[in-house]
Specification:
Helix content of chain A: 40-55%
CATH topology of chain B: Rossmann fold
Radius of gyration of chain B: 17 Å
Number of domains of chain B: 1
Order of helices and strands of chain B: EEEHEEHEHHHEHEHEE
Largest interface: A-B, 25 and 25 residues
Structural class of chain B: alpha/beta
Oligomer: heterodimer
Structural class of chain A: alpha+beta
Shape of chain B: globular
Largest sheet of chain B: 6 strands, mixed
Largest sheet of chain A: 6 strands, mixed, barrel
Helix content of chain B: 25-40%
Bound molecules: adenosine-5'-diphosphate, magnesium ion
Number of strands of chain A: 14
CATH class of chain B: Alpha Beta
Shape of chain A: elongated
Number of strands of chain B: 10
Radius of gyration of chain A: 29 Å
CATH architecture of chain B: 3-Layer(aba) Sandwich
Number of helices of chain A: 13
């Protein structure tokens, strides 16, 4: 084997080429890591938002979107009374009628933004036990409480939407009286108000859905049966986890777009790398010939060239990982139904490292082959 | 015998025409001989050296070098054979520019399985022999042409191969440097009983050898020339 120092010194032969390789691979790896982390973050928030114990009753035909769904208001009471297996907390059955509503709000400083608003009753805390009031209290009429990440989704500064401030929603002024957290779920990006207020603001007679928390996920069949028997209510029962699973599929074209973009950039970088290496290796044909004359086999030389390029690309990967940790880790990204956070975890890092390695290997093989291909006498004459 | 060539031919295809620089050539070189090869440019001198050193394979004929019939070896076997049996000295030295003199000379030993300490010892000895014991850490760019060629000779002999081939080793050097190189090669022949085949254009260089052969029209012509 040729020593690693040979590979390292060859890399240092041209500082500009080294910078180009390291920079190019860093860019690609950073993009790959970002794409993986975005995908993961989106999946994570969607899967965390759906509890296996919860069932959503939606209007038939609106299974895709709770915002478009319409359910008669008395469904909440009927479902609560007739479905067996519903969880009871302190004697109250965990059934929550909700209105999901998207509209512009204005905050105190006059900034307007589209917000995810949910009209709720305190029962929602029973179907979503992960919701914690971190400050203040649950809203009564004329009041709202805001999710921990609502500011992010609204594009506001983090210190907005404080308790005591107010927001305006279709000319109605609502006071912020509470803040809540529901770690990792889409709810954290929402603004919750009393369901009566939202019915008025949204000018609707119906509610969007009824969420039921079951003692046992197996009892879904009971809810399903209820929905199918009560034809008059025009209901469709969906496991909450399935609902968010479908939403996740809804975003798959977006994810595909992200991957296509990253792949195209990566492809460009690889071709750029191959191009520079062709030029760089052309001047080393004779050196490769000399080493073969001394007795080094082509495979050994190929490995050394591979070592060179993977070393450069792994340096780029290291740079990319550092940048990802500094710039991307912990970042929150708003999307249409919530906010997800970017986490540079071990999976992301591993995929980053693998793509860095792959870049090094794919980028060097064609130029290396061309460099090692000439017959030995020809190589020595060059 | 170190070298026994029998009816060795080498042809190249240049498009549709066939060039045959070597035609049914016979050559015998005894162990320890210093042989000079002369001949006009394009007469096939480099081609012959390449065959003798296992860099290239003949189109036909048999080549027995250091006891092995190398005309039948496969590429991979030839590579391994070269590492043990031949030191090649090039006109333009062909040192690896990113490596120091020491590291250049060490290259053949990386294939030998010697320990680091043993390698250092042998590199040191080889560099001392060529008079460059004080240039270990110099890169080729920091050496003169004559010094570079001496490093190249140290590299060729460090693994102790029985055969040295040199293709116009003094062709790019001034007279004084050339003289040193020729003295060095002679010494290697007499003191270390290396068999040396050296291609040269220079009659003065050929005069350093034990015997000179002329390559013309694919054949070797004996020309009794003594030192
Ligand atoms: N790889 C090759 N392909 C085609 N022709 C070659 C090749 N190598 C050498 N030749 C031809 O063989 C002849 C001998 O070349 P060479 O051995 O280099 O001569 P010399 O070293 O005596 O100058 C020349 O005519 C040269 O053009
Ligand atoms: Mg020649």
């Amino acid at each position: 084997m040729l020593p690693l120092s040979y590979a390292i010194r060859n890399l240092l032969r041209s500082k500009s080429r080294l910078a180009q390789t390291v920079g190019g691979s860093a860019l690609v790896v950073l993009l790959v890591m970002a794409a993986v982390a975005i995908n993961q973050g989106m999946s994570r928030v969607l899967s965390a938002s759906g509890s296996p114990n919860n069932v959503i009753l939606l209007g038939t035909g609106s299974e895709e979107s709770v915002q478009r769904s319409e359910v008669s208001e008395n469904t909440t009471g009927i479902a609560s009374a007739s479905i067996p297996g519903i969880q009871e907390i302190l004697g109250v059955r965990a059934v929550s009628g909700e209105i999901h509503f998207m509209n512009y709000i204005s905050s105190d400083d006059g900034s307007r933004a589209q917000a995810l608003i949910r009209g709720v009753s305190p029962a929602i805390l029973h179907v979503h036990p992960e919701v914690r009031l971190t400050q203040g209290r649950f809203p009564a009429a004329g009041e709202v409480m805001v999710g921990r990440l609502a500011w992010r989704n609204l594009g506001l500064k983090q210190d907005r939407l404080k308790i005591g401030t107010s927001i305006t929603l279709n000319d109605q002024t609502l006071r912020v009286v509470g803040r809540f957290a529901a770690p990792g779920t889409v709810m954290e990006s929402e603004i919750w108000a009393a369901i009566g207020d939202i019915r008025v603001v949204a000018q609707r007679e119906t509610i969007s859905c009824v969420v039921i928390r079951l003692e046992d996920p197996e009892d879904f069949s009971e809810v399903d049966l209820f929905a199918k028997q009560r034809l008059d209510l025009e209901l469709s029962a969906l496991r909450e986890s399935d609902y968010y699973g479908r939403l996740s599929e809804f975003f798959s074209p977006l994810r595909a777009m992200i991957w296509i973009t990253v792949s195209l950039i990566a492809l460009g970088a690889v071709f750029g790398g191959i191009h520079t290496l062709y030029a760089a290796f052309a001047s080393r044909v004779r050196e490769m010939g000399t080493l073969q004359a001394i007795g080094f086999g082509r495979t050994t030389l190929l490995l050394s060239l591979l070592q060179e390029s993977t070393l450069a690309c792994l340096t780029g990967t290291l740079l990319a990982s550092t940048l990802a940790m500094l710039l991307l880790d912990g970042l929150t990204v708003p999307f249409s139904i919530g906010t997800f956070s970017i986490e540079i975890n071990s999976t992301v890092a591993l995929i980053g490292i693998l793509s860095g390695l792959l870049l090094g290997i794919i980028g060097v093989i064609p130029p290396a082959i061309r460099c090692l291909k000439p017959a030995l006498p020809t190589a020595l004459r060059s | 015998m170190m070298i026994q060539c029998q009816q060795v031919s080498k042809s190249y295809y240049k498009g549709s025409t066939v060039v045959t620089p070597l035609q049914a050539l016979d050559l015998e070189v005894p162990k320890g001989e210093f042989l000079a090869l002369m001949g006009p440019s394009g007469s096939g001198k480099t081609t012959l050296l390449n065959l003798l050193s296992g860099i290239d394979s003949p189109t036909s004929g048999s080549l027995i070098i250091a006891g092995a019939n190398i005309s039948t070896l496969k590429q991979r076997e030839l590579t391994a054979w070269r590492a043990k049996h031949v030191g090649y000295i090039f006109q333009l030295y062909h040192l690896v520019p990113v490596l120091t003199a020491f590291e250049n000379v060490e290259l053949p030993l990386l294939l030998s399985g010697l320990s680091k300490a043993e390698r250092r010892e042998r590199v040191h000895t080889a560099l001392k022999l060529v008079g460059l014991a004080d240039r270990h850490d110099h890169t080729p760019a920091e050496l003169s042409g004559g010094q570079e060629q001496r490093v190249a000779i140290a590299r060729a002999i460090v693994a102790d191969p029985p055969l040295l081939v040199a293709d116009e080793p003094t062709g790019d050097l001034d007279r004084d440097s050339a003289t040193r190189i020729l003295e060095l090669l002679r010494e290697l022949g007499t003191e270390q009983s290396k068999t040396i085949v050296m291609v040269t254009h220079d009659a003065r260089a050929a005069a350093a050898a034990d015997r000179t052969l002329h390559l013309e029209k694919g054949q070797l012509l004996e020309n009794l020339q003594t030192t």
